[in-house]
What does this fold into?
Amino acid sequence: MRPYSVDLPGGSAKKPEVPPAKDRVPNPYRAPRPKDLLFKGLFEIRPEGNSLGFDDQPIHLTLSSLYLWFSDGSSIPLAAINDLSLVQGDSFLKIEFWHSHSEQTGVLLIRPRKFMNVGAKSLLREFESALRASWKRAPKRAEFFGTKENPSRYITGGCEKGDAREARPLSLTSYWSMGIPVVFYASRTQKVEHLLCQVHGERLALRVALQNGLRGYLGLGGVVFAPMVAFQNAAALVKAYPRSSKRAAVLLFGFALPLLGIVAAILFYVAARNGLTP
Ligand SMILES: [Zn+2]
It folds into this structure.
């Protein structure tokens, strides 16, 4: 079975139908899994062309009529794409896109993940033409993102988790590590940009901090990286919501395992002093 498939409607220049209100998304950079699939494949990302914060794992990429979709954590609306080009001897596809939250340009350098790169270039060309065709048919930027005069028919805006209209982009990094280098070691870092109101943003920041605070220290590298991620996430929270009072808690949760260790050591010491241990 071929891992890739192209299924483009035979050259029709028809625009995609406008999705019903319930299918409109608050955050187009974190769209739900699209239903209309035009192309699917396993790709890898070149680190220097990775402004979406992907880790080094291969990504399952899906092309639909409105999105280039990677996971529940990230997608690029086709309307946001500035330019597409094959680079480095046609080995990589460079996707330049506009990010509406930060008003900045992002870059993604990708190529198909193939054993020994056999057939990778032809698949990349196939994908490039499929993406280019969808991009041309997709709604234009002003129509997709909407303007004050003409609100978007595709994006509802607001919080991803609730009905709040006031939402801010919040970048949170998840991190875990396990084992000792040389013997066995694995770690993973993943950054996701959410669009959340302060209530949901603080809640998520605390949850991510606690997960990182417990799982981040199970590997030797975690001693260095888990604290860095804890400070990063605490800073991200304050950047998103300057008046948030949860910064200290997020930071504290980010050190959960070492703090538990210290508490356990103190309890053990006190118990030992009082002759309570065997
Ligand atoms: Zn909310």
User: Anything to note?
Assistant: The chain has two domains: 19-145, 168-273. The first strand starts at residue 5 and ends at 6. Residues 13 and 137 are 6 Å apart (CA to CA). The radius of gyration is 22 Å.
